[in-house]
Amino acid sequence: ETGVTQTPRHLVMGMTNKKSLKCEQHLGHNAMYWYKQSAKKPLELMFVYSLEERVENNSVPSRFSPECPNSSHLFLHLHTLQPEDSALYLCASSLQGGFTEAFFGQGTRLTVV
Amino acid sequence: QKEVEQNSGPLSVPEGAIASLNCTYSDRGSQSFFWYRQYSGKSPELIMSIYSNGDKEDGRFTAQLNKASQYVSLLIRDSQPSDSATYLCAVKTSGTYKYIFGTGTRLKVLA
User: In this predicted model, which residue has the larger pLDDT, B79 or A16?
Assistant: First the structure.
């Protein structure tokens, strides 16, 4: 496989459920990102990991918990979500340092019921 | 002031015409600039990156950067219906980890 892969592609969960989103990159990158995309809003940066260390946490509610066990894998653990958390969750990766592009996975469409 | 601003559109152009998409940014320290294309229900796909003032061409796409005016644009020549999508402008400041995105401009190419 190449690029950035996210699973699952679609997820419907109740407000009391616990689920996890998974992201894997095969680009040799050393930084990984979680973005949230809601309708008519710009992409919102949630978390950034560089060399497996969290370097950015943009005031995200604690019901979202990221995990980066190595430079190729990133998880977003979800618990007790609210309906307003329904959105497209995008994972991206890049090489840190210098001028580099970020590449996105296919996204997980999350619906909280 | 928003960090990255784009006209939300829709911008409608006839097939074969030039589509011009614009973006302004607020951080003068921004050093990397990107255009992504996003089809409905899909994830953003990188089209162009530009790092220095002037024009950069890649096929039918030309990115233009003017750091003094804090302005970056994307021209699409010979627009095709398949170019109909939302185009996202993103900027990054060297030494930071953040890619800051605009809300995107929706482009409609009419056959």
Answer: B79
